[in-house]
Design a protein that fits this description.
two-stranded antiparallel sheet, Cyclophilin, 13 strands, nine-stranded antiparallel β-sheet, alpha+beta, single chain, 3 helices
Protein backbone atom coordinates (compact mmCIF):
# COMPACT_ATOMS: atom_id res chain seq x y z
CA UNK A 1 0.00 0.00 0.00
CA UNK A 2 1.80 3.03 1.18
CA UNK A 3 4.84 0.91 0.90
CA UNK A 4 5.21 2.61 -1.80
CA UNK A 5 9.99 11.95 -6.07
CA UNK A 6 16.33 12.36 -11.53
CA UNK A 7 13.82 14.96 -13.12
CA UNK A 8 10.24 16.03 -13.03
CA UNK A 9 9.97 13.89 -16.11
CA UNK A 10 11.27 10.91 -14.27
CA UNK A 11 8.05 9.98 -12.65
CA UNK A 12 5.49 11.30 -10.32
CA UNK A 13 6.33 8.34 -8.41
CA UNK A 14 7.86 11.29 -6.75
CA UNK A 15 4.44 12.04 -5.51
CA UNK A 16 3.81 8.52 -4.78
CA UNK A 17 6.74 10.07 -3.31
CA UNK A 18 8.59 6.95 -3.10
CA UNK A 19 8.57 5.23 -6.42
CA UNK A 20 8.74 1.98 -4.58
CA UNK A 21 5.67 1.78 -2.49
CA UNK A 22 2.09 2.75 -2.35
CA UNK A 23 3.01 6.31 -2.00
CA UNK A 24 5.02 6.39 -5.11
CA UNK A 25 3.67 5.83 -8.48
CA UNK A 26 6.41 5.16 -10.94
CA UNK A 27 4.14 5.18 -13.93
CA UNK A 28 3.92 8.91 -14.53
CA UNK A 29 6.68 10.97 -15.98
CA UNK A 30 8.78 13.44 -14.11
CA UNK A 31 5.83 15.58 -13.75
CA UNK A 32 5.10 13.37 -10.77
CA UNK A 33 6.72 14.46 -7.53
CA UNK A 34 5.72 11.55 -5.53
CA UNK A 35 7.47 9.27 -7.78
CA UNK A 36 7.92 8.18 -4.36
CA UNK A 37 4.69 12.15 -5.42
CA UNK A 38 1.03 27.07 -9.79
CA UNK A 39 1.84 30.02 -8.23
CA UNK A 40 -0.73 30.84 -5.67
CA UNK A 41 -0.85 32.54 -2.35
CA UNK A 42 -0.79 30.38 0.70
CA UNK A 43 -4.36 30.00 1.90
CA UNK A 44 -5.43 31.85 4.97
CA UNK A 45 -6.86 29.94 7.87
CA UNK A 46 -10.47 29.09 7.15
CA UNK A 47 -13.32 30.53 9.13
CA UNK A 48 -15.79 27.91 7.87
CA UNK A 49 -17.79 25.89 10.30
CA UNK A 50 -16.04 22.70 11.31
CA UNK A 51 -17.32 19.43 9.84
CA UNK A 52 -18.00 18.15 13.32
CA UNK A 53 -20.36 21.06 13.91
CA UNK A 54 -22.20 20.69 10.61
CA UNK A 55 -23.20 17.06 11.11
CA UNK A 56 -22.94 16.17 7.40
CA UNK A 57 -21.15 12.86 6.80
CA UNK A 58 -20.20 10.41 4.07
CA UNK A 59 -19.30 6.72 4.22
CA UNK A 60 -15.70 5.70 3.54
CA UNK A 61 -14.01 2.34 3.05
CA UNK A 62 -10.59 1.55 4.54
CA UNK A 63 -9.76 -2.06 3.64
CA UNK A 64 -6.57 -3.75 4.81
CA UNK A 65 -3.86 -3.47 2.17
CA UNK A 66 -2.11 -6.74 2.96
CA UNK A 67 0.98 -5.02 4.34
CA UNK A 68 2.27 -5.04 7.88
CA UNK A 69 1.52 -1.59 9.36
CA UNK A 70 4.54 0.48 10.34
CA UNK A 71 2.74 1.14 13.62
CA UNK A 72 -0.20 -0.55 15.22
CA UNK A 73 -3.24 1.65 14.62
CA UNK A 74 -6.95 1.20 14.05
CA UNK A 75 -8.55 2.03 10.73
CA UNK A 76 -10.64 5.22 10.79
CA UNK A 77 -14.38 5.19 11.41
CA UNK A 78 -16.34 4.62 8.20
CA UNK A 79 -18.50 7.69 8.77
CA UNK A 80 -16.52 10.82 7.90
CA UNK A 81 -17.49 14.51 8.26
CA UNK A 82 -18.07 15.88 4.77
CA UNK A 83 -18.37 19.64 5.25
CA UNK A 84 -16.16 22.41 6.50
CA UNK A 85 -12.50 22.43 7.38
CA UNK A 86 -10.25 21.18 10.16
CA UNK A 87 -7.04 22.84 11.33
CA UNK A 88 -3.94 20.86 12.23
CA UNK A 89 -0.33 21.59 13.11
CA UNK A 90 2.71 19.49 12.20
CA UNK A 91 5.40 20.24 14.78
CA UNK A 92 8.88 19.50 13.39
CA UNK A 93 12.44 20.01 14.60
CA UNK A 94 12.59 22.95 12.13
CA UNK A 95 9.36 24.59 13.30
CA UNK A 96 5.61 24.34 12.92
CA UNK A 97 3.70 23.68 9.70
CA UNK A 98 0.08 24.82 9.97
CA UNK A 99 -2.52 22.98 7.88
CA UNK A 100 -6.09 23.65 6.85
CA UNK A 101 -7.76 20.32 5.97
CA UNK A 102 -10.63 20.38 3.47
CA UNK A 103 -13.26 17.89 4.61
CA UNK A 104 -15.73 19.02 1.97
CA UNK A 105 -13.43 18.16 -0.95
CA UNK A 106 -11.68 15.09 0.47
CA UNK A 107 -13.68 13.80 3.46
CA UNK A 108 -12.27 10.25 3.52
CA UNK A 109 -8.70 11.51 3.21
CA UNK A 110 -9.12 14.09 5.97
CA UNK A 111 -10.84 11.49 8.13
CA UNK A 112 -7.85 9.15 7.76
CA UNK A 113 -5.25 11.86 8.43
CA UNK A 114 -7.07 13.04 11.54
CA UNK A 115 -7.48 9.48 12.81
CA UNK A 116 -3.78 8.69 12.36
CA UNK A 117 -2.78 11.98 13.98
CA UNK A 118 -5.05 11.37 16.95
CA UNK A 119 -3.55 7.89 17.40
CA UNK A 120 0.01 9.27 17.39
CA UNK A 121 0.94 7.47 14.17
CA UNK A 122 2.94 10.45 12.88
CA UNK A 123 4.66 11.31 16.17
CA UNK A 124 8.48 11.06 16.17
CA UNK A 125 8.67 10.09 12.50
CA UNK A 126 11.08 11.22 9.77
CA UNK A 127 10.33 13.02 6.52
CA UNK A 128 12.66 10.95 4.35
CA UNK A 129 12.62 12.89 1.10
CA UNK A 130 12.67 16.40 -0.22
CA UNK A 131 12.38 17.23 -3.92
CA UNK A 132 13.86 20.65 -4.67
CA UNK A 133 14.42 21.23 -8.37
CA UNK A 134 12.94 22.89 -11.43
CA UNK A 135 9.32 21.84 -11.86
CA UNK A 136 8.60 20.74 -8.33
CA UNK A 137 9.30 21.27 -4.68
CA UNK A 138 7.87 18.85 -2.15
CA UNK A 139 8.56 17.40 1.28
CA UNK A 140 7.41 13.78 1.68
CA UNK A 141 6.34 12.52 5.08
CA UNK A 142 4.01 10.00 6.70
CA UNK A 143 6.08 6.81 6.84
CA UNK A 144 7.32 5.93 10.34
CA UNK A 145 9.95 3.59 8.87
CA UNK A 146 11.57 6.43 6.92
CA UNK A 147 12.02 4.15 3.91
CA UNK A 148 9.18 5.45 1.75
CA UNK A 149 7.52 2.05 1.84
CA UNK A 150 5.76 2.04 5.21
CA UNK A 151 2.10 2.64 5.90
CA UNK A 152 -0.79 2.14 8.30
CA UNK A 153 -1.96 -1.26 7.02
CA UNK A 154 -5.01 -0.02 5.14
CA UNK A 155 -5.74 1.83 1.91
CA UNK A 156 -8.52 4.03 0.57
CA UNK A 157 -9.79 5.45 -2.71
CA UNK A 158 -8.69 8.63 -4.45
CA UNK A 159 -10.85 11.73 -4.10
CA UNK A 160 -10.14 13.44 -7.42
CA UNK A 161 -12.00 15.80 -9.72
CA UNK A 162 -9.46 15.58 -12.54
CA UNK A 163 -8.78 19.32 -12.23
CA UNK A 164 -6.21 19.10 -9.45
CA UNK A 165 -3.19 21.41 -9.56
CA UNK A 166 -0.29 21.56 -7.14
CA UNK A 167 0.78 25.15 -6.42
CA UNK A 168 2.94 26.07 -3.45
CA UNK A 169 0.90 25.60 -0.30
CA UNK A 170 -0.80 22.37 -1.39
CA UNK A 171 -1.16 19.33 0.87
CA UNK A 172 -1.72 16.07 -1.03
CA UNK A 173 -1.57 12.30 -0.69
CA UNK A 174 1.29 10.24 -2.08
CA UNK A 175 0.32 6.98 -3.72
CA UNK A 176 1.50 4.01 -5.74
CA UNK A 177 -1.24 4.13 -8.32
CA UNK A 178 -5.01 4.62 -8.38
CA UNK A 179 -6.80 4.16 -5.05
CA UNK A 180 -3.69 3.21 -3.07
CA UNK A 181 -3.72 6.04 -0.53
CA UNK A 182 -2.43 5.26 2.94
CA UNK A 183 -0.47 7.31 5.46
CA UNK A 184 2.10 9.05 3.25
CA UNK A 185 1.56 12.63 2.12
CA UNK A 186 3.53 15.45 0.56
CA UNK A 187 3.74 19.17 1.25
CA UNK A 188 4.23 21.37 -1.82
CA UNK A 189 6.46 24.38 -1.14
CA UNK A 190 7.10 25.35 -4.77
CA UNK A 191 4.66 25.41 -7.69
CA UNK A 192 4.81 21.86 -9.01
CA UNK A 193 3.71 20.31 -12.30
CA UNK A 194 2.10 16.94 -11.66
CA UNK A 195 -0.76 15.12 -13.37
CA UNK A 196 -4.05 15.28 -11.41
CA UNK A 197 -3.43 11.87 -9.81
CA UNK A 198 -2.86 12.90 -6.21
CA UNK A 199 -5.69 13.71 -3.83
CA UNK A 200 -5.48 17.28 -2.56
CA UNK A 201 -6.85 17.46 0.96
CA UNK A 202 -5.65 20.74 2.40
CA UNK A 203 -3.36 23.74 2.35
CA UNK A 204 -0.25 24.93 4.18
CA UNK A 205 -0.04 28.25 5.98
CA UNK A 206 2.57 30.95 5.29
CA UNK A 207 4.65 30.12 8.37
CA UNK A 208 4.59 26.46 7.39
CA UNK A 209 5.98 27.26 3.94
CA UNK A 210 8.78 29.21 5.61
CA UNK A 211 9.55 26.17 7.74
CA UNK A 212 9.76 23.93 4.67
CA UNK A 213 11.92 26.51 2.86
CA UNK A 214 14.37 26.28 5.78
CA UNK A 215 14.45 22.49 5.37
CA UNK A 216 15.04 22.80 1.62
CA UNK A 217 17.88 25.29 2.22
CA UNK A 218 19.84 22.53 3.95
CA UNK A 219 19.95 20.59 0.67
CA UNK A 220 19.57 16.86 0.03
CA UNK A 221 21.69 13.95 -1.11
CA UNK A 222 20.10 13.82 -4.58
CA UNK A 223 19.90 10.05 -4.39
CA UNK A 224 16.24 9.55 -5.29
CA UNK A 225 15.86 8.29 -8.87
CA UNK A 226 12.91 10.61 -9.53
CA UNK A 227 14.60 13.69 -8.13
CA UNK A 228 15.63 15.07 -4.78
CA UNK A 229 16.61 12.77 -1.97
CA UNK A 230 17.12 12.50 1.77
CA UNK A 231 17.44 15.87 3.52
CA UNK A 232 21.01 16.72 4.47
CA UNK A 233 19.73 17.56 7.93
CA UNK A 234 17.28 15.09 9.43
CA UNK A 235 13.67 16.26 9.46
CA UNK A 236 11.49 14.85 12.23
CA UNK A 237 7.77 15.25 12.82
CA UNK A 238 7.61 15.54 16.59
CA UNK A 239 3.81 15.45 16.69
CA UNK A 240 0.69 16.29 14.72
CA UNK A 241 -2.00 18.18 16.61
CA UNK A 242 -5.55 18.44 15.27
CA UNK A 243 -7.61 21.52 16.14
Amino acid sequence: MLKRLATVAACLSVLALSACGNEADGKDSASDPAASETTSESPEASTEESPEASGATTTCDYPEDGQEPARDVDAPDAEAPSEGTVTATITTNFGDIGLNLDAATAPCTVNSFVSLADQGFYDDTPCPRIGDQEGFGILQCGDPTGTGSGGAGYSFADELSGDETYPAGTLAMANAGPDTNGSQFFLVFRDSQFPPNYTVFGTIDEAGLETIDAIAAEGNDGAHPAGGGAPNKDVTIEKVTVG
